[in-house]
Fold each of these.
Amino acid sequence: MSEPAIRIRGLSKTYGQHRAVDGLDLDVRCGEVFALLGPNGAGKTTTVEVLEGFRDRDAGEVSVLGTDPQGAPLAWRERIGIVLQSSGGLDLLTPREVLRTTARCYRQPREVDEVLTRTGLQEKADERISGLSGGQRRRLDVALGIVGRPELLFLDEPTTGFDPQARRDFWGLIRDLASDGTTILLTTHYLDEAEHLADRVGVIAAGRLLALDTPAALGGRQSQEATVSWEEDGVRRSLRTATPTAELLALAARFPGEVPELTVTRPSLEDTYLALIAPHVSGESAQVPA
Ligand SMILES: Nc1ncnc2c1ncn2[C@@H]1O[C@H](COP(=O)(O)OP(=O)(O)OP(=O)(O)O)[C@@H](O)[C@H]1O
């Protein structure tokens, strides 16, 4: 198997007495879309900032595209793209101007017009950034992250503030980038986003990895009981079962035609995620022992 794009072993980071990341081990494979999930304060941004080389770690080994990000050379920085939680400034310039200027910093940038089109900013390309809506500014953040043609793209809560259509468009862009071979590490609080985009998800809380799997299999979702629901005599009925097909056959035999309001559901990614983090949401990150 090839070297992972990101390799983390025993990563720890403490702010004062506050342990934000607590012995994290994680690999992100080359070419995969990986979603890092976790409640507020779980340590996602701290982890991503260490990987981006913006934050020094206290302990552990980290390799990003084969290089330790702590003190990595400029040539390494050119191979990664970063979309932070929020960026600002540059209000008097236009998206085209900032993209052109940023593109000049890279050896093999994408065409600025291609990036404007892919991020849905063509119509705003020559307007001042101060006149863009919140969602359009976020698209510009994404555009700036991909203009350098990165091998590895970090996206920190990329679709916050997007309307539903813009989110769908963005998901299409991420899938395109992934099929071009870009490795993508994304943090998000939207479970549907992780389900749509991620090959694998990692759930962290209090700086520790709680679960790691495909969205479909996380927390044993595939093998959990299904809920079969229907309406009978004007009353909503439901039962949980490990054999939903047998229940459907029994219902089909009881009703002459369609079974009224029939649904079969399994725990959603959100149900599974909430169950995983439940023991961790009331407490904050671990305190460093005295
Ligand atoms: N610069 C800092 N100084 C002190 N404490 C910090 C600093 N940055 C983060 N923390 C603390 O470290 C913990 C982890 O923060 P982090 O931003 O990594 O979490 P997160 O998972 O990204 O949260 P969110 O989902 O809210 O963005 C939090 O308790 C936070 O308050």
Amino acid sequence: MSAENKVFIYDTTLRDGAQAEGVTFSPVAKIHVAKMLDSFGVDYIEGGFAASNPKDMAFFKAIKNETLKQAKIAAFGSTRRANVKVEEDKGTAALLEADTDVCTIFGKSWLLHVTEVLKTTPEENLAMIEDTCRYLKENGKEVIYDAEHFFDGYKDSPDYALRSLEAAVRGGADCLVLCDTNGGCMPNEIFEVTTLVRDRFGVAVGIHTHNDSETAVANAMESVRAGAVHVQGVINGFGERCGNCNLVSVVANLNLKTDKTCLADPAQLKSLKSVSQFVNEQANLRDNQRAAFVGESAFAHKAGMHVDGVRKVSHSFEHVPPESVGNDRRILISELSGASNVMEKLIEMGLNNIDRKSPEVREILKMMEKQERGGYVYESADASFKMLIKKVLKEHKSFFELEGFRVMVEKRGKNAPCVSEATLKLNVNGKRAFTVGEGDGPVDALNMALRHALQEFYPSIRHVQLADYRVSILDPEEATAAKTRVVIESSDGENTWGTVGVSENIIEASWEALVDGVEYKLFLNEDKK
Ligand SMILES: CC(=O)SCCNC(=O)CCNC(=O)[C@H](O)C(C)(C)COP(=O)(O)OP(=O)(O)OC[C@H]1O[C@@H](n2cnc3c(N)ncnc32)[C@H](O)[C@@H]1OP(=O)(O)O
Ligand SMILES: CC(=O)C(=O)O
């Protein structure tokens, strides 16, 4: 890796990320995230605000017992309070107590904040910056200086904003990080101001952006183009208000689209999606389906013409190869599909010998369109679409015949729980199966009865679980006569697959989706034999 092309990645998921509404990391989660970030290859991990709370301080102690490959742990805090000696300042003492190699302090660049928030004088603020940097340097720390509101401060008074950086440099700061704290800047402003700071100071320049104008990643990229060598951000971009610069996108863009490198081992880029998912899990957040690079939809192609293009030349509709960031290409089936979408599904099913222009492909498309007009959607119900293909190709067989079911929901008294029970009669290979299932609701009960009935004949069904269940009402204006669409996700612990059913009766729609789900699994098993 050429030193001059290296951009240092400073992760603040555990500090600025924790300032996001709805996010709190447990002490154990903080350690898990830090270890994962280290394996991923970031350079700095900001573990918390040293003076803020015992949990953040406990993290700094606990992480010392872990062996990290290369990441440095940074403790975060502010410049000393106004009119307090730095040696007597509690926040600065907490930074030293954290006992990290790196201390990151934020100081004020904007006169508005100096006079109206700190309620101090411009000169005292400069002294606070210089004293705190110097004191931390004297105590052997690498000092990263976060110039809070730097761009807003610069717009208000360029002279004062630059003097605040000079104070940090006099104090010995190792890196000047320009912060767009309110997230209001445009990329061109970031480029111009970063260029000016880079040319003026012989110190490394970094960037810290927020996403209030949806420009945090673009702003960080522009800052790097202007010479910043250090980017601060959060995995998945959550953080105060609208969030921080999303490091997932920054790391991918830097590695794949510039001559810069940023991960200790660039091969780690392939773990980007799992890193993103891991952080969301630890932060108790859902994955963002539409997230750039790592979302489920990031490489999902729906429009027929796009699928046609991707099948011919993958980069005709993909800005980077999905596998480069650990993601997968997905082909969706819908009313916008053409023959190319169907071909992809045929290939997935191992049916490689059917021509794109064949009558079978046209017939599959015709059937799919008819079904969609009737309320079916196949985007999330790939397995039902594959069953439909089998039916059109006359390769479908029924593994069982339904003789009948009855579903009952009973509530015996105001405070008694609702009990759901289903009885089911099937004919399986000429033998009669009669089972009863109980469940949390009527569909769960029916699902239980179906699995009990089949597992004697098809043992693999034992492992199939109902993973998700979604209901939509079609034509709601028709009130009770409205159709119901049920989409079910089933899982056998290894794979998940979606199926769909439509009926005026919710139980019947659910049954249809359950049957497709079970048949899909049984076909998969047959194919494996
Ligand atoms: C841009 C950023 O994201 S910076 C990080 C912001 N993060 C956080 O605030 C989360 C952690 N914070 C906390 O736990 C608490 O705010 C603490 C423990 C740090 C401080 O709590 P308190 O002492 O009760 O103060 P409070 O939060 O109400 O006010 C902040 C004080 O810090 C001062 N302050 C703010 N920025 C700075 C600075 N850069 N340098 C010195 N003092 C500062 C304010 O002037 C105010 O001082 P005052 O009490 O004399 O009026
Ligand atoms: C330092 C910081 O978090 C900010 O200015 O946004």
